[in-house]
Amino acid sequence: MKQCKTCEEIKTLTDFYSGRNSCKVCVIERVKRSTNKQTKTAYDKDRRKKKGDELRAYDRERAKLPHRRAAHNEDTRKRRAKLKDAIPDDYDREGVLAMYKLAQKISNLTGVQMHVDHTIPLACGGEHNVKNLQLLAGTLNIAKGANVNFQLNWEKYPK
Question: Which of 27, 38, 108, 158 is deepest in the core (most CB within 10 A)?
Fold first, then answer.
């Protein structure tokens, strides 16, 4: 016989997982509470308030990892597009993420920093979907800015 630390009832040893001080019923209830969407959202908000700076620093460092860079870039663009109501109903996350991964691979292979650019910029009413994305070299993307009718002038760039 053993006393549960959570409900404080005395139960048989078969009612406990090995190495646990809480009974199986209490463990299952705790797991259900932690996977409840509303409870988790409230927990996450509270945690962000208490440890905001520490978590932001962790997120920044995690975003620098090579296997996370494309997903981080896609998440950042999606967040900005959501602020401008530019996420379409038929949003294809896998397709958009594939564009960011492709840009990362080309950058690694060629040494030229590639950007995923919105053909019609979000600032001009463009949507954040695969149909509105293109790969551009970083310098060209910065030169393009939020222009819809960007024309490359070869005289400006050295050969």
Answer: 27
Token pair 């001080």: residue: 21
Model confidence pTM above 0.85: no
- CA 101 → CA 61, 88, 126, 133, 145, distances in Å? 19, 21, 21, 13, 22
Query: Tens of pLDDT along 54-109?
Result: 888 887 787 777 777 888 888 888 877 776 777 888 888 899 899 999 999 999 99
Q: Take residue 56 and report the two structure tokens written for it.
A: 């932001």
Q: Shortest CA distance to 66 belongs to which of 90, 101, 116?
A: 101
